[in-house]
Design brief:
By secondary structure, the chain is mostly helical. The chain is built from six helices and two strands. It has one domain. Helix 2 runs antiparallel to helix 3. It is elongated, with a radius of gyration of 19 Å. Bound molecules: flavin-adenine dinucleotide.
């Protein structure tokens, strides 16, 4: 880090907006609801959001109807994805040598097969929990759920 000539540094922030569309403009992915890398679900939310947005627009005659349905379906997934325990950023970015040692120790413990299963259940989001609508394709074939 000290020797790099292109070192980049930025804070981690979540994007929380009251609404994701205005008129004919709509936001998706990080632009609408960035959950930060700590959430571990930003890519899933971005892809699922694009799928739902396209599907709902294809069903609606008016974009505002499609945007409202997209927001109704996506809000609960996004809120769950953004619900990172407040302690996590501090735990994952320790500010002292002791903190770094504790993080490494904790990761070593979590990596043990016995603990790993329980830790995964606690911290990793299960994308299979998302129940997504199925949308017909423009060719008339039913699309499969991602
Ligand atoms: C360090 C890091 C680690 C991460 N780890 C994970 C992880 O493990 N798991 C996970 O699920 N998610 C992770 N994420 C989050 C994930 O990368 C994002 O949530 C996801 O990429 C969001 O997709 P997006 O399409 O909304 O935005 P982006 O992937 O950011 O895509 C936006 C695109 O728009 C382009 N763009 C910007 N402005 C303009 C413009 N004016 N004109 C044209 N193009 C423009 C950008 O170049 C970019 O290609 C991580 C993110 C970071 C930064």
């Amino acid at each position: 880090m000290e020797n790099a000539d292109d070192f980049y540094f930025e804070v981690l922030r979540q994007v929380r907006m009251d609404r994701w569309s205005a008129g004919r403009v709509v936001l998706a992915g990080d632009a609408a609801w960035c959950a930060t890398p700590i959430s571990g679900i930003g890519t899933t939310l971005a892809i699922v959001g694009a799928y739902v947005l396209a599907g709902e627009l294809s069903k609606s005659t008016d974009p505002s109807e499609g945007f409202a349905a997209y927001e109704r379906i996506m809000r609960p997934f996004v809120e769950e994805g953004q619900s990172v325990p407040k302690i996590m950023p501090r735990l994952l970015n320790p500010h002292s040598r002791i903190g770094v040692a504790m993080l490494r120790g904790a990761l070593r413990v979590i990596d043990q097969p016995v603990v790993k299963g329980a830790a995964m259940k606690l911290f990793v989001r299960d994308s299979q929990k998302l129940e997504l609508p199925e949308y017909g394709s423009p060719t008339g074939k039913t699309s499969s759920t991602p």
